[in-house]
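Risk register update: the risk of archive-format incompatibility is retired. Evidence:
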Amino acid sequence: MSDHPQKRVLFTTQKAFASRLILATLTGRPIRITRIRPSSPTNLGVAPHEISLLRLLEAVTNGSMIEVSMTGTTVDYRPGLITGSTQGLGANRGVIRHEVPAACTRGVSYFLIPLCLLAPFSKSPINVLFSGPGVITSATPAGDLSVDSVRTAILPLFAKFGILKDIELRILRRSNPGSRGKGGAGEVQLVFGHQVRLPKTLHLLNPGRIKRIRGVAYCTGVPASNNARMIEAARGILNPIGVDIYVFSDVSSAPHIPSNDKANPSGKTKTGIGFGLSLVAESSTGCLYSADVASPPSGGAPPEDIGQQCAHQLLESVAAGGAVSIAAVPTILTLMSMSSEDVGRVQLGKDVLSADHIIDLARDMKALGLSPWGFRETSTGQENDIVVSVVGKGVGNVGRKIA
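Archived output:
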Protein backbone atom coordinates (compact mmCIF):
# COMPACT_ATOMS: atom_id res chain seq x y z
CA MET A 1 0.00 0.00 0.00
CA SER A 2 1.41 3.36 -1.02
CA ASP A 3 2.06 6.17 1.46
CA HIS A 4 1.30 8.77 -1.22
CA PRO A 5 -2.22 10.23 -1.48
CA GLN A 6 -4.18 8.52 -4.18
CA LYS A 7 -7.12 9.69 -6.21
CA ARG A 8 -10.44 8.16 -5.19
CA VAL A 9 -11.89 5.50 -7.45
CA LEU A 10 -15.55 6.32 -8.09
CA PHE A 11 -18.35 3.74 -8.05
CA THR A 12 -22.12 4.15 -8.22
CA THR A 13 -25.06 2.31 -6.60
CA GLN A 14 -25.00 -0.25 -3.79
CA LYS A 15 -24.31 -3.16 -6.15
CA ALA A 16 -21.27 -5.21 -5.01
CA PHE A 17 -20.90 -2.94 -1.97
CA ALA A 18 -18.99 -5.51 0.11
CA SER A 19 -16.79 -6.64 -2.78
CA ARG A 20 -15.72 -3.08 -3.59
CA LEU A 21 -14.82 -2.35 0.03
CA ILE A 22 -12.73 -5.52 0.27
CA LEU A 23 -10.92 -4.88 -3.01
CA ALA A 24 -10.21 -1.31 -1.90
CA THR A 25 -8.80 -2.58 1.41
CA LEU A 26 -6.60 -5.19 -0.28
CA THR A 27 -5.21 -2.77 -2.87
CA GLY A 28 -5.03 0.24 -0.54
CA ARG A 29 -7.02 2.41 -2.94
CA PRO A 30 -9.52 4.98 -1.55
CA ILE A 31 -12.99 4.77 -3.08
CA ARG A 32 -16.21 6.77 -3.18
CA ILE A 33 -19.57 5.05 -3.67
CA THR A 34 -22.42 7.33 -4.69
CA ARG A 35 -26.15 6.98 -5.51
CA ILE A 36 -26.79 4.34 -2.84
CA ARG A 37 -30.57 3.82 -3.01
CA PRO A 38 -31.17 7.52 -3.79
CA SER A 39 -34.84 7.17 -4.67
CA SER A 40 -36.01 4.63 -2.09
CA PRO A 41 -38.92 6.07 -0.08
CA THR A 42 -38.39 3.80 2.94
CA ASN A 43 -34.74 2.61 2.82
CA LEU A 44 -32.79 5.63 1.64
CA GLY A 45 -29.00 5.25 1.63
CA VAL A 46 -26.89 2.53 3.22
CA ALA A 47 -28.75 -0.44 4.73
CA PRO A 48 -28.18 -1.80 8.27
CA HIS A 49 -26.04 -4.71 7.01
CA GLU A 50 -23.84 -2.32 5.02
CA ILE A 51 -23.32 -0.07 8.05
CA SER A 52 -22.46 -3.16 10.08
CA LEU A 53 -19.88 -4.20 7.47
CA LEU A 54 -18.26 -0.75 7.61
CA ARG A 55 -17.98 -1.07 11.39
CA LEU A 56 -16.42 -4.51 11.01
CA LEU A 57 -13.82 -3.15 8.58
CA GLU A 58 -13.05 -0.36 11.03
CA ALA A 59 -12.50 -2.96 13.77
CA VAL A 60 -10.05 -5.17 11.81
CA THR A 61 -8.04 -2.29 10.29
CA ASN A 62 -6.02 0.55 11.72
CA GLY A 63 -6.15 4.01 10.17
CA SER A 64 -9.20 3.51 7.98
CA MET A 65 -11.32 6.61 7.35
CA ILE A 66 -15.04 6.17 6.65
CA GLU A 67 -17.37 9.06 5.86
CA VAL A 68 -21.09 8.66 5.20
CA SER A 69 -23.13 11.57 3.87
CA MET A 70 -26.07 12.97 5.83
CA THR A 71 -28.54 11.19 3.56
CA GLY A 72 -26.51 7.95 3.57
CA THR A 73 -26.36 7.86 -0.25
CA THR A 74 -22.59 8.48 -0.48
CA VAL A 75 -19.76 6.62 1.27
CA ASP A 76 -16.09 7.66 1.23
CA TYR A 77 -13.66 4.94 2.29
CA ARG A 78 -9.91 5.30 2.70
CA PRO A 79 -8.49 1.93 3.84
CA GLY A 80 -5.89 1.48 6.52
CA LEU A 81 -3.57 -1.37 7.50
CA ILE A 82 -5.24 -4.74 8.11
CA THR A 83 -4.29 -5.42 11.73
CA GLY A 84 -6.69 -8.24 12.62
CA SER A 85 -7.56 -8.92 16.26
CA THR A 86 -4.72 -6.89 17.73
CA GLN A 87 -5.09 -6.10 21.41
CA GLY A 88 -5.95 -2.44 21.93
CA LEU A 89 -7.21 -1.92 18.38
CA GLY A 90 -10.78 -3.12 18.85
CA ALA A 91 -10.04 -6.56 20.30
CA ASN A 92 -10.60 -7.67 23.88
CA ARG A 93 -8.31 -10.54 24.91
CA GLY A 94 -7.62 -11.25 21.26
CA VAL A 95 -11.31 -11.44 20.25
CA ILE A 96 -13.35 -8.83 18.38
CA ARG A 97 -17.02 -8.97 19.32
CA HIS A 98 -19.11 -7.77 16.41
CA GLU A 99 -22.81 -7.26 17.10
CA VAL A 100 -25.14 -7.48 14.11
CA PRO A 101 -28.28 -5.26 14.40
CA ALA A 102 -31.77 -6.75 14.54
CA ALA A 103 -32.78 -5.04 11.28
CA CYS A 104 -30.19 -7.03 9.30
CA THR A 105 -31.71 -9.14 6.51
CA ARG A 106 -28.45 -10.71 5.28
CA GLY A 107 -26.89 -13.93 6.48
CA VAL A 108 -23.71 -13.83 8.53
CA SER A 109 -21.84 -15.17 5.48
CA TYR A 110 -22.23 -11.64 4.07
CA PHE A 111 -19.61 -10.68 6.68
CA LEU A 112 -17.68 -13.96 6.88
CA ILE A 113 -16.56 -14.26 3.26
CA PRO A 114 -15.15 -10.69 3.04
CA LEU A 115 -13.43 -11.21 6.38
CA CYS A 116 -11.87 -14.45 5.12
CA LEU A 117 -10.48 -12.59 2.12
CA LEU A 118 -8.82 -10.01 4.38
CA ALA A 119 -7.53 -12.48 6.97
CA PRO A 120 -4.53 -13.93 5.05
CA PHE A 121 -3.17 -10.40 4.58
CA SER A 122 -3.62 -9.32 8.19
CA LYS A 123 -0.75 -8.28 10.45
CA SER A 124 -1.98 -10.65 13.17
CA PRO A 125 -4.55 -13.48 13.40
CA ILE A 126 -8.23 -12.65 13.09
CA ASN A 127 -10.65 -13.85 15.75
CA VAL A 128 -14.15 -12.39 15.43
CA LEU A 129 -17.26 -13.40 17.38
CA PHE A 130 -20.51 -12.48 15.60
CA SER A 131 -23.38 -12.05 18.02
CA GLY A 132 -26.49 -9.95 18.48
CA PRO A 133 -30.11 -10.19 17.36
CA GLY A 134 -29.25 -9.92 13.64
CA VAL A 135 -27.03 -13.00 13.18
CA ILE A 136 -28.55 -15.45 10.66
CA THR A 137 -26.55 -18.67 10.22
CA SER A 138 -28.75 -20.25 7.53
CA ALA A 139 -29.09 -19.42 3.86
CA THR A 140 -31.24 -16.36 3.15
CA PRO A 141 -33.62 -15.23 0.37
CA ALA A 142 -31.02 -12.57 -0.55
CA GLY A 143 -28.72 -15.36 -1.78
CA ASP A 144 -26.33 -15.59 1.17
CA LEU A 145 -24.73 -18.95 1.89
CA SER A 146 -25.25 -20.72 5.18
CA VAL A 147 -22.34 -20.91 7.61
CA ASP A 148 -22.15 -24.66 6.85
CA SER A 149 -21.48 -23.96 3.16
CA VAL A 150 -18.83 -21.36 4.02
CA ARG A 151 -17.12 -23.91 6.26
CA THR A 152 -17.28 -26.85 3.83
CA ALA A 153 -17.19 -25.21 0.37
CA ILE A 154 -15.35 -21.86 0.74
CA LEU A 155 -12.71 -22.23 3.46
CA PRO A 156 -11.18 -25.45 2.00
CA LEU A 157 -10.35 -23.51 -1.19
CA PHE A 158 -7.82 -21.40 0.71
CA ALA A 159 -5.61 -24.50 0.97
CA LYS A 160 -5.05 -24.32 -2.79
CA PHE A 161 -3.28 -20.99 -2.18
CA GLY A 162 -1.12 -22.40 0.63
CA ILE A 163 -3.41 -21.02 3.35
CA LEU A 164 -4.56 -23.96 5.46
CA LYS A 165 -3.41 -23.75 9.10
CA ASP A 166 -5.29 -22.52 12.18
CA ILE A 167 -8.56 -21.82 10.37
CA GLU A 168 -11.78 -22.61 12.20
CA LEU A 169 -15.41 -21.57 11.84
CA ARG A 170 -17.63 -22.39 14.83
CA ILE A 171 -21.42 -22.28 14.94
CA LEU A 172 -22.15 -21.55 18.58
CA ARG A 173 -25.89 -21.00 18.09
CA ARG A 174 -27.92 -21.65 14.96
CA SER A 175 -30.66 -19.43 13.60
CA ASN A 176 -32.84 -18.96 10.55
CA PRO A 177 -34.28 -15.61 9.39
CA GLY A 178 -36.78 -14.23 11.87
CA SER A 179 -39.97 -12.29 11.28
CA ARG A 180 -40.07 -10.63 7.82
CA GLY A 181 -36.61 -12.07 7.14
CA LYS A 182 -34.89 -9.87 9.73
CA GLY A 183 -32.63 -11.04 12.52
CA GLY A 184 -32.01 -14.48 13.92
CA ALA A 185 -29.99 -14.13 17.16
CA GLY A 186 -27.42 -16.75 16.22
CA GLU A 187 -23.77 -16.78 17.23
CA VAL A 188 -20.73 -17.61 15.08
CA GLN A 189 -16.99 -17.36 15.68
CA LEU A 190 -14.31 -17.18 12.97
CA VAL A 191 -10.68 -17.93 13.85
CA PHE A 192 -8.24 -17.31 10.98
CA GLY A 193 -4.68 -17.67 12.16
CA HIS A 194 -2.74 -18.36 8.93
CA GLN A 195 -1.25 -15.16 7.51
CA VAL A 196 1.00 -15.26 4.44
CA ARG A 197 3.26 -12.85 2.57
CA LEU A 198 1.77 -13.82 -0.79
CA PRO A 199 -0.74 -16.55 -1.74
CA LYS A 200 0.56 -19.28 -4.03
CA THR A 201 -0.24 -19.11 -7.73
CA LEU A 202 -3.24 -21.28 -8.57
CA HIS A 203 -3.54 -23.70 -11.49
CA LEU A 204 -6.91 -25.44 -11.36
CA LEU A 205 -7.69 -26.93 -14.77
CA ASN A 206 -9.11 -30.40 -14.15
CA PRO A 207 -12.64 -30.59 -12.69
CA GLY A 208 -12.50 -34.39 -12.39
CA ARG A 209 -15.52 -36.55 -11.62
CA ILE A 210 -17.79 -36.33 -8.59
CA LYS A 211 -16.78 -38.94 -6.01
CA ARG A 212 -18.68 -37.95 -2.84
CA ILE A 213 -21.46 -35.71 -1.56
CA ARG A 214 -21.57 -34.39 1.98
CA GLY A 215 -24.11 -32.15 3.65
CA VAL A 216 -25.72 -30.75 6.76
CA ALA A 217 -29.47 -30.71 7.40
CA TYR A 218 -30.30 -28.27 10.19
CA CYS A 219 -33.44 -27.20 11.98
CA THR A 220 -33.99 -24.58 14.67
CA GLY A 221 -36.98 -24.62 16.97
CA VAL A 222 -38.87 -27.22 14.89
CA PRO A 223 -39.15 -31.04 15.16
CA ALA A 224 -36.11 -33.11 14.17
CA SER A 225 -38.27 -35.05 11.71
CA ASN A 226 -37.91 -32.11 9.32
CA ASN A 227 -34.24 -33.01 8.86
CA ALA A 228 -35.05 -36.63 8.08
CA ARG A 229 -37.65 -35.56 5.51
CA MET A 230 -35.21 -33.17 3.78
CA ILE A 231 -32.48 -35.81 3.67
CA GLU A 232 -34.81 -38.48 2.29
CA ALA A 233 -36.09 -36.14 -0.44
CA ALA A 234 -32.56 -35.10 -1.45
CA ARG A 235 -31.35 -38.71 -1.49
CA GLY A 236 -34.23 -39.65 -3.75
CA ILE A 237 -32.69 -37.42 -6.42
CA LEU A 238 -28.98 -37.94 -5.70
CA ASN A 239 -28.82 -41.70 -5.00
CA PRO A 240 -29.07 -42.70 -8.71
CA ILE A 241 -25.76 -40.91 -9.33
CA GLY A 242 -24.04 -43.78 -7.51
CA VAL A 243 -21.58 -41.82 -5.34
CA ASP A 244 -20.91 -41.87 -1.60
CA ILE A 245 -23.51 -39.66 0.14
CA TYR A 246 -23.65 -38.70 3.80
CA VAL A 247 -25.77 -35.88 5.27
CA PHE A 248 -25.37 -34.91 8.92
CA SER A 249 -28.43 -33.86 10.93
CA ASP A 250 -28.19 -30.98 13.41
CA VAL A 251 -31.13 -30.09 15.67
CA SER A 252 -31.09 -26.88 17.75
CA SER A 253 -33.49 -25.04 20.00
CA ALA A 254 -34.69 -21.62 18.89
CA PRO A 255 -32.82 -18.55 20.20
CA HIS A 256 -34.67 -16.19 22.53
CA ILE A 257 -34.69 -12.39 22.32
CA PRO A 258 -36.39 -9.74 24.47
CA SER A 259 -40.06 -9.46 23.54
CA ASN A 260 -40.25 -5.66 24.02
CA ASP A 261 -43.65 -6.13 25.59
CA LYS A 262 -44.50 -3.28 27.99
CA ALA A 263 -46.80 -5.58 29.98
CA ASN A 264 -43.93 -8.02 30.52
CA PRO A 265 -40.58 -6.15 30.27
CA SER A 266 -38.52 -9.21 31.21
CA GLY A 267 -40.31 -11.52 28.78
CA LYS A 268 -38.57 -13.20 25.85
CA THR A 269 -39.78 -14.55 22.55
CA LYS A 270 -38.47 -17.20 20.15
CA THR A 271 -36.88 -16.17 16.85
CA GLY A 272 -34.84 -17.72 14.06
CA ILE A 273 -37.21 -20.67 13.64
CA GLY A 274 -36.81 -22.75 10.47
CA PHE A 275 -34.83 -25.47 8.71
CA GLY A 276 -32.49 -25.85 5.75
CA LEU A 277 -30.06 -28.05 3.87
CA SER A 278 -26.48 -27.50 2.73
CA LEU A 279 -24.88 -29.90 0.22
CA VAL A 280 -21.31 -30.04 -1.13
CA ALA A 281 -20.10 -32.33 -3.92
CA GLU A 282 -16.37 -33.11 -4.11
CA SER A 283 -14.65 -34.31 -7.28
CA SER A 284 -11.73 -36.68 -7.71
CA THR A 285 -9.40 -33.68 -8.14
CA GLY A 286 -10.60 -31.84 -5.02
CA CYS A 287 -13.01 -29.41 -6.73
CA LEU A 288 -16.06 -28.40 -4.69
CA TYR A 289 -19.61 -27.60 -5.78
CA SER A 290 -22.18 -26.36 -3.28
CA ALA A 291 -25.92 -25.85 -2.91
CA ASP A 292 -27.84 -24.16 -0.12
CA VAL A 293 -31.57 -23.85 0.52
CA ALA A 294 -33.47 -22.83 3.67
CA SER A 295 -37.14 -22.49 4.53
CA PRO A 296 -38.56 -19.03 3.71
CA PRO A 297 -39.19 -16.63 6.63
CA SER A 298 -42.90 -16.66 5.83
CA GLY A 299 -43.03 -20.46 6.17
CA GLY A 300 -45.26 -22.70 4.12
CA ALA A 301 -42.53 -24.76 2.41
CA PRO A 302 -42.54 -28.48 3.34
CA PRO A 303 -39.16 -30.12 4.10
CA GLU A 304 -39.49 -32.37 1.04
CA ASP A 305 -39.52 -29.33 -1.26
CA ILE A 306 -36.42 -27.89 0.44
CA GLY A 307 -34.56 -31.20 0.06
CA GLN A 308 -35.48 -31.61 -3.60
CA GLN A 309 -34.70 -28.00 -4.41
CA CYS A 310 -31.26 -28.26 -2.79
CA ALA A 311 -30.45 -31.51 -4.64
CA HIS A 312 -31.47 -29.98 -7.99
CA GLN A 313 -29.43 -26.87 -7.19
CA LEU A 314 -26.36 -29.04 -6.53
CA LEU A 315 -26.78 -30.88 -9.83
CA GLU A 316 -27.14 -27.56 -11.65
CA SER A 317 -23.93 -26.31 -10.00
CA VAL A 318 -22.04 -29.37 -11.24
CA ALA A 319 -23.65 -29.17 -14.70
CA ALA A 320 -22.58 -25.51 -15.03
CA GLY A 321 -19.07 -26.85 -15.58
CA GLY A 322 -15.67 -25.61 -14.58
CA ALA A 323 -13.56 -26.47 -11.56
CA VAL A 324 -15.19 -23.93 -9.21
CA SER A 325 -18.78 -23.52 -8.03
CA ILE A 326 -20.37 -20.17 -8.87
CA ALA A 327 -20.63 -19.32 -5.14
CA ALA A 328 -16.83 -19.58 -4.77
CA VAL A 329 -15.73 -17.88 -8.01
CA PRO A 330 -15.38 -14.34 -6.52
CA THR A 331 -13.23 -15.71 -3.69
CA ILE A 332 -10.98 -17.66 -6.07
CA LEU A 333 -10.51 -14.79 -8.54
CA THR A 334 -9.82 -12.25 -5.78
CA LEU A 335 -7.11 -14.43 -4.22
CA MET A 336 -5.59 -15.08 -7.66
CA SER A 337 -5.40 -11.33 -8.28
CA MET A 338 -3.61 -10.79 -4.95
CA SER A 339 -1.09 -13.63 -5.38
CA SER A 340 2.52 -13.41 -6.59
CA GLU A 341 3.33 -11.78 -9.93
CA ASP A 342 2.75 -14.89 -11.99
CA VAL A 343 -0.02 -16.15 -14.25
CA GLY A 344 -2.61 -18.28 -12.47
CA ARG A 345 -5.21 -20.28 -14.38
CA VAL A 346 -8.61 -21.65 -13.47
CA GLN A 347 -11.22 -23.45 -15.57
CA LEU A 348 -14.72 -22.02 -15.28
CA GLY A 349 -18.03 -22.74 -16.95
CA LYS A 350 -19.05 -20.17 -19.54
CA ASP A 351 -22.43 -19.71 -17.88
CA VAL A 352 -20.68 -19.09 -14.55
CA LEU A 353 -18.29 -16.55 -16.04
CA SER A 354 -21.12 -14.67 -17.76
CA ALA A 355 -23.04 -14.09 -14.50
CA ASP A 356 -23.65 -10.40 -13.82
CA HIS A 357 -21.81 -10.30 -10.50
CA ILE A 358 -18.71 -11.92 -12.04
CA ILE A 359 -18.64 -9.37 -14.86
CA ASP A 360 -19.04 -6.58 -12.28
CA LEU A 361 -16.14 -8.06 -10.30
CA ALA A 362 -13.88 -7.94 -13.37
CA ARG A 363 -14.76 -4.28 -13.97
CA ASP A 364 -14.19 -3.34 -10.33
CA MET A 365 -10.81 -5.09 -10.26
CA LYS A 366 -9.67 -3.24 -13.35
CA ALA A 367 -10.84 0.09 -11.91
CA LEU A 368 -8.79 -0.55 -8.77
CA GLY A 369 -5.60 -1.30 -10.71
CA LEU A 370 -5.65 -5.09 -10.72
CA SER A 371 -4.78 -7.01 -13.86
CA PRO A 372 -7.51 -7.75 -16.42
CA TRP A 373 -8.32 -11.39 -17.08
CA GLY A 374 -7.30 -13.42 -20.11
CA PHE A 375 -9.39 -16.15 -21.74
CA ARG A 376 -8.72 -19.18 -23.91
CA GLU A 377 -10.48 -22.37 -24.86
CA THR A 378 -9.80 -25.51 -22.84
CA SER A 379 -7.28 -28.05 -24.13
CA THR A 380 -9.59 -30.93 -23.17
CA GLY A 381 -12.26 -29.96 -25.68
CA GLN A 382 -14.96 -29.13 -23.13
CA GLU A 383 -17.08 -26.68 -25.12
CA ASN A 384 -18.96 -25.26 -22.14
CA ASP A 385 -15.79 -24.38 -20.21
CA ILE A 386 -13.17 -21.68 -20.62
CA VAL A 387 -9.76 -21.11 -19.00
CA VAL A 388 -9.38 -17.79 -17.19
CA SER A 389 -5.83 -16.45 -16.74
CA VAL A 390 -5.13 -13.95 -13.95
CA VAL A 391 -1.81 -12.18 -13.34
CA GLY A 392 -1.20 -11.64 -9.63
CA LYS A 393 -0.67 -8.09 -8.39
CA GLY A 394 2.08 -9.09 -5.99
CA VAL A 395 1.09 -6.51 -3.37
CA GLY A 396 0.83 -9.13 -0.68
CA ASN A 397 0.70 -8.69 3.06
CA VAL A 398 2.07 -5.26 3.91
CA GLY A 399 1.50 -5.92 7.60
CA ARG A 400 3.84 -8.93 7.64
CA LYS A 401 6.40 -7.04 5.58
CA ILE A 402 6.71 -4.13 8.04
CA ALA A 403 6.12 -6.09 11.26
